[in-house]
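Re: that chain you flagged

S.,

Sorry for the slow reply, it's been a week of failed gels. I finally had a moment to sit down with the sequence you sent. For the record, here it is as I used it:
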Amino acid sequence: MQEFACLGPAGTYSHKAAIAYFKAKSIKKDVAFFPTIIDVLESVENKKVMEAIVPVENSVEGTVNETQDFLARCKHINIIAEITIDIDHNIIGFLGADLKKVTKVISHPQPIAQCKTFIRKNMPNASVEYSTSTTAAIQKVAELGDNKNVAIGNSLIVKDFGLEILKRNISDTIDNQTRFFVINNDKTLAKGDKVSIVFSIEKDVPGGLYRILGEFANRGINLTKIESRPSKGDRFTYKFFIDLQGCIADNEVKKALDNISKLSTFFKILGVYEEIGSC
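Prediction finished late last night. Pasting the structure tokens below so you have them in one place:
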């Protein structure tokens, strides 16, 4: 079994987050790279890899839906840590490229969405091509070998491909950050001061969600995120994702979760974990 997985090839933002996580924990692990986020998640679910890191939410574009949906439906994955990193999107290409003459911008869908204003204003003649990762985009530009194509990505491996950073920090907002979850396939809940859950409630029941939120409000438990996603099994029904601050051993947190599980048609603790912070 391999030690650790993330979206590859080397040099992606997931790889950058993995490096930050190792540094924060003072550990060293061999990293296996997978071509898609779903492949990373499945590698942990199927016990091919012990641990992995996956993006879950960006401060500009919101939730990474493929991660969230997989965590809700999988049977064995636990969240064991959260780390947030700064996202430094750059235009990457061959030295001397004129952005006004660029005809194609290549990157993962998330960076494209996070930089759409810059693209529209500075590369008006460019079409967009999506890649499986920012590193794959950089590789593609290097292979194409001309000044008409550029990639959006970070600076980790630019020099490895003989390319240059043509424009730094092009995100549409200044404080662009992404949250990542570190996950494993251990049934034992980890220790930490943050809990993530997902649940569904009976359809068309007045006050159903209100009663569940009241379980937290009445006990002074702070929620850091609440979001709904389509259930994908029954049309126009939803799963609700909540992140909360609290220790699973705390009696008030325990009571709230026990009551919510009884009020729900589906309930799952996604993980109990430590929040490492921003890197």
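What I noticed first: Residues 194-270 form a domain with the Alpha-Beta Plaits fold (CATH 3.30.70.260).

Talk soon,
D.
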